[in-house]
Design goal:
By secondary structure, the protein is an alpha/beta fold. It has helices spanning about 10-20, 40-50, 60-75, 110-125, 145-160, 170-175; strands spanning about 30-35, 55, 60, 85, 100-105, 130-135, 140, 165, 185-190, 190-200. Strand 5, helix 4 (about 110-125) and strand 6 (about 130-135) form a beta-alpha-beta unit. Helix 1 (about 10-20) runs parallel beside helix 2. The chain is globular, with a radius of gyration of 16 Å. The structure holds S-adenosylmethionine. S-adenosylmethionine binds near residues 35 and 87.
């Protein structure tokens, strides 16, 4: 049988720093939805380290979903579900609620409408007080945070003109418009940021 597991060196490097940054935000026992799970290595690591939570990985790419499921099977974790087909840009998501939502390294490698869909979907699924956690490279104050990120951004835009490192402030403005707080920002290794948005109480009407 072929081994369908994909491996991401970056995910192996950043999985523990990300987990350290967010573990106290995830309310146990709770359903943690991960959007754009990629290889699945984050999901499996988090499920191993946080056995009181249930992890729901997802990705729009069938090859990623096969990898996620293969990593889950190989790890033997029982608190991670099979990967869902979920395109953040699509307004129809295949589940109705989650206690927290994670999305790492998708926003810069997808058209802006995926970010719009992500924030709208998170607003639909999360109850007041629940966190939406984003991780990746972002511009701040109209500038890249490193020369490496500027080069990365140029490469992304050359590959696909709809991709690119986004302005933190643009993502935050959209999040606030969807009913989230401003971002709590943590600087991470390799010039990445963790952004935590908390769902505010829904306004009547
Ligand atoms: C760079 S990988 C990141 C994977 C993983 N989150 C990580 O940090 O290692 C980007 C992932 O985003 C997924 N993706 C891109 N656009 C998406 C969308 N509109 N909805 C859901 N997933 C998407 C891709 O299929 C890919 O698995």
């Amino acid at each position: 049988m072929p081994d369908l597991r994909l491996s991401s060196p970056a995910a192996l490097r950043n999985r523990d720093p990300i987990l350290d940054a967010i573990r106290d935000l995830l309310p146990p026992p709770g359903l943690v939805l991960e959007i754009a799970s990629g290889s699945g290595q984050h999901c499996v690591r988090f499920a191993e380290r946080l056995p009181g939570h249930v992890f729901q990985p997802s990705d729009k790419d069938p090859r990623a979903r096969a990898s996620i499921d293969a990593w889950i099977a190989a790890s033997g974790v029982t608190n991670a579900r099979a990967a869902l087909a979920l395109d953040a840009a699509d307004p129809n998501w295949p589940l109705a609620a989650a206690d927290a939502i994670l999305c790492f390294n998708m926003i810069h490698i997808a058209p802006w409408r995926a970010t719009q869909g992500l924030l709208a979907g998170a607003a639909r699924l999360l109850a007041p007080g629940a966190p939406l956690v984003l991780y990746g490279p972002f511009r701040r104050g109209g500038a890249h945070t490193s020369a490496g990120n500027a080069t990365f951004d140029r490469d992304l835009r050359n590959e696909n003109r709809d991709w690119g490192v986004r302005d933190l402030e643009s993502v935050e403005a959209l999040a606030i418009a969807e009913g989230f707080t401003a971002a709590a920002v943590t600087e991470m290794p390799a010039n990445n940021l963790t952004l935590v948005f908390t769902r505010k109480a829904k306004l009547p009407g």
